[in-house]
Predict the structure.
Amino acid sequence: MKNNTLASLTWLRLIRFANQNNQLSNEFLKRFKLTSAQFDVLVQIQVYQPLTQTELAQRVTVTQGGISRMLFRLEKEGYVMRTQEWKQKTISLSSKGSQVLEKAMPEQLDFQTSLFEDTLTKEELKNLYTMLTRLYKNNERKKLPPE
């Protein structure tokens, strides 16, 4: 750890925060019988429906294989519907999926908000959001170094 830069230590801290936050979210969302990944998938479907499985996989942090398994479970639970239109399958929320999001969304947002607002001032939160947005946009354009 002696050779770590401030940037590499910050990266490690972000990863640890994201993992810890994901664990807290998973624990919190158990009351709705959802994981944080399932919650994210349902939210993305709600916002962009109808969409294909490929489009959905591009919007979430789940692999193409993982999204197939998750959609199978969500469909089995009655949260999503897959509709075949000629050669293309599209995914939409069912009424049960809309209902669970209607209950879970405000509580999850309040929970996540509290994790930040209990610690950071409004100004710090605004600065953090601005910095993370800049980092995110840079990552979208970043090319890997040559081998």
Notes: Helices lie at 6-29, 36-48, 53-59, 64-76, 95-117, 122-141. Residues 46 and 98 are 8 Å apart (CA to CA). The longest strand covers residues 80-85. DSSP finds six helices and two strands in the chain.
